[in-house]
Amino acid sequence: MRRFSHVASSSVMLAKALSQMVKDDPRNFAYKVKERIRLSRVSMFLPKRLLWSEEQTTRLTKIEELFSEGAFQQLSALGSSSELQKLSRSDRRKVSRATERWELLHSELPDPGKGSSNLRQSRLQEELLVTFFLTNSLPYTQSGYTFRSHEMAKAMSSAGVNVKVVTRFGYPLVVGQFPIRPVDWIDGIRYRRQLTASYPSSLRERNSLSVNLLLDEIRCSGTDIIHTTTDYNNALVAASAAVRSGLPWVYEVRGELENTWLSRHPRDKQEQLRGSDFYKAARMQEVACMNAANAVITLSEVS
Fold first, then answer.
1. pTM given for the model
2. Segment 82-137, tens digit of pLDDT
3. Nearest Cα to 117, choosing from 246, 264, 228, 279?
């Protein structure tokens, strides 16, 4: 019965998420669907002309170009002007999404140290429970990120620390994977999904729902420490849950969001884009997240 309820609510969420993705950017959604088909075995049974390649993508609109170049402040300003109604529905959605991202990039985090009052210092190491809040995970995503996360959880578990993992809101449905179970056990590590029958249209509402779901998890499990990884989207959820529960949180910095974003653009444009709204705001917000955490760890001495 529990599995049936999970499948039913996940199916509703998937339908709502797909609908939202189509509304946000129908052309990009269609492109992603065709790319998935092109990379699958099904492609060998379909005419090549039906599938897009990277060279066949259509030209971006001016709004899409601004979004791609991280001009979020400019797009946000456009959202409150009379020019907005002259845009296509797809472009209006892009302006709305840029406005939301700009707001999240400037969201304030709780002050350092506020989330440490309930840490039970008297507990022995083997009695501590750490809840990881991750972007994605095994078995649905095979990547350096997911393998590192899993190996860290295994190492901590081997050292006697209790570890539980929670993945971000909507995952793995938002990457095209349907989980049959609400919980996966891999090498003795429990992975729980934040899946509900609801999928709000706004990023802030999704974050708020994610915080509430994380709070339910850490309160039920008796969590002592919240551990999350870059980027700031994870940090905003973890920090909010930490301050509301009185727990400390750890920020694991695995990369530099702004430079990862920059690397996806042509080399001849990268120097110019270092001055973009997104690049500067992302860098500042990541530093703010590090300062707000009770502890920060990185991948190496170089980092």
1. 0.89
2. 889 889 888 999 999 999 999 999 999 977 555 455 555 545 555 799 999 999 99
3. 246
